[in-house]
Amino acid sequence: MIDEINTNSTTQKNKKLLKSPLFWVAAIFILYMFVGFIVIPFIIRGQAIDFIKEEYNRDAKIETVSFNPFTFTLSIEGFLLNEKDRGVFLKWGDFYVNLNLFPLFSKDIDIEELQLLYPEIQIIKKREKFNFSDLITQEEDEADSLKEEFCWGILIRNLKIRKLNVLVQDKSVEPMAEVHIDSIDVLLTNIHPFTSDTTEFKVDFEIREGGKGFVSGIFTQIPMMTEFTFDMDSVAIIETQPYLSKFAYLRIDDGAINLKGTVKLIMPENENTVASYIGTIGLNDLNVFDTKKEEKFLAWDKLENRGVEIHSEPILLTIDSVLINGLFSRIAIAKDQTINILDAFEPVMKNMDTTTIEEKEKLDYKFDIGMINISNSEMYFSDFSLPINFAVRVHSLNGNIAGFSSGNPLGAVVALEGTVDEYGFAKIEGNLDPFNPLNYTNIAMNFHNIDLVKMSGYSAKFVGYKIEKGKLSLDLEYLIRKGMLTSTNQIFLNKLTLGDEVEGEEGIGLPIKLAIALLKDSDGNIDLDFEVEGDLNDPEISTGKLVWWAVKRTLTTIVTAPFRFLGNLLGLSNGGELEYVDFEVADTSLAPHQIEKLINITKALNERPGLSLGIYGAVDTVSDKYALQKIKFDSLFTAGLKKISGKENILAASADQELRRQVLESLYREAYSDSLLNIMISQHIKEINSGNDSIKISAKDIHDDQIIDMRDYFNSLINNIIKKQKVNNNKLMKLAAERAERISDFLINKQKLPVERILVKENEIYENEDDDWVKCRLELGAL
């Protein structure tokens, strides 16, 4: 009975409770909390994992999901998304969303804060695809449809990503490229998709391999535009090595890039993207190694570009100044004549498309670099293709290049100077069009005190000798206008001494030692000036070829006409005549004008102490022999006059005709005979005219000398008597030798030239019937 009473009482209370508004409020509140705290997290966790599995065929894991139905905050902790091959793609510690409730009633999703803590992501490229390529393709399609169908507004007031770590691997290159971007902090404010609202963002990051960076800016979606400033400090570039290996046999051993500036991108629909950059670009501590040649290729301590502006529409590059410090570069020619620069880039050269190159050349672009400053730099040049290895180092290189611009009609202004090897000096000044030097170049180059011993490789190749000692100074001026070259070249060689001859090298085919001896002054120096002109538009012609041709032409002119060169040296207009000393026929005495010639030769030899003088004796077997015969005849004729006249002091000039006739006929009879004399007389009888008839008188009727042409008769007698005089070859050779000795004696004893510089050569024989002078040839040689 009592139990029934209690049951009825409880039932009545329950009915009363069910009718109470407070009960239902409490029940709904409890249910709301249950659904919010328990059901929604459970559903989100399960549905998210299933959705990822179905849509992306990837496994995912979520440790906990919590939702606060009162604050409308959602937290997803311990999320992990695997690769298709079970590797980790993405994970985070906590994903937190703070949603404003009231805007939902007006179809606006207003997220006060969205925060991602300690996320990690791995970005991996294999061949041509990334490990997220499948996700991007699907998301792009969904984003397009979402943009068209979704009518709710979305506003994310604050998006924060804290301590994001990104691993980037590129397995499409060999070796694999890898970089770790750590401790990335991201802050975005006012994210309003599909609107023209401006979103602000900031990003901080560190690179494990070296460097850090900061980015701050804005972007809009309509139109697509972003503008941001960034500061990247000492970011290591060594991780780019795998990409460089695809194009060159080079290895980056060190280097850090510095970037600080502002980037602006405008990406309007159906139009070209407009991009610009304003700021600085630097690359420090660069060290590049040539893996093919196994030697240092390129390096510098500091490269800084200040006042950089880059624009894409139109293409424009301007740089206020470029600072290069501690530059090292190497140009090396190997034994097979290959050049290290071309060899280093052989991989890219093989695959280079000439069509692509031509298209790039047609691009409309402008550039302007205000000033390039180079300090404390060096360049190493070597050429092992020569018979003797050649290497030179230009260091302490300082200077600047100004006006490096596509719109500068005067060209870039170059001013550089440095030290060559230990004590040499090099300087380059002038203007040139850097992209078309053939169009305009006006450059002066000065090299002083350059050690010539190191030039033995080139001297061996071009002249066939090593260089024992010497210094070079070179002043060159090149002017090129539209391919036409005009240049002046001044070469000064101090104490140049050739060394051993190099076997197997033909040189230039000239007596180079003689050329040097001719050019060398009394101080042992060579001072040579020459001009070069030519058309460089001809692809077969280069500046080097023109200069070498000019040098060779100059040397050829000197060695083929050495006495003319010496005459010019002395200011003589007839320098070519110094090559011969003239003697009267049958004579060995020096005529006054020949003495003057030998004095001039002495002066020239004193000016050129490296020269020797060869003297050739000379005799003419016709004119000299005849002159000697005449001397013998004169002696016989004088003796005959004395004998017949009986006068000891009689002179040939004072003898009368009859006496002369008697002597000549007597000499003729001795040389020939009476019968031949009668024939000679008959050949010289005059014709006697009688009326219209000409009467010839025979020799037997001759009683008067008047009927004989005495002049012709005497000349015939004399010539025939002279020819009968005997002069043997020994007499002629003695005459030639005496002439050479006379010249040698004058130069050594009178002009005091050293004996070792005078060489008496063999005799030379001539046959000139009409000459009254015989030429003794002189020859210049090198000591």
From TrEMBL:
CC per GO annotation: plasma membrane
A Pfam family of this chain: DUF748
Transmembrane segments: 21-44
Keyword Transmembrane helix among UniProt keywords: yes
Keywords, ordered alphabetically: Membrane, Transmembrane, Transmembrane helix
UniProt record, GO biological process: regulation of protein targeting to membrane
InterPro entries xrefs: AsmA-related, DUF748
Keyword field contains Transmembrane helix: yes
UniProt-listed PANTHER family: DUF748 DOMAIN-CONTAINING PROTEIN
Protein name: DUF748 domain-containing protein
Species in which this protein is naturally found: hydrothermal vent metagenome
Lineage: unclassified sequences, metagenomes, ecological metagenomes
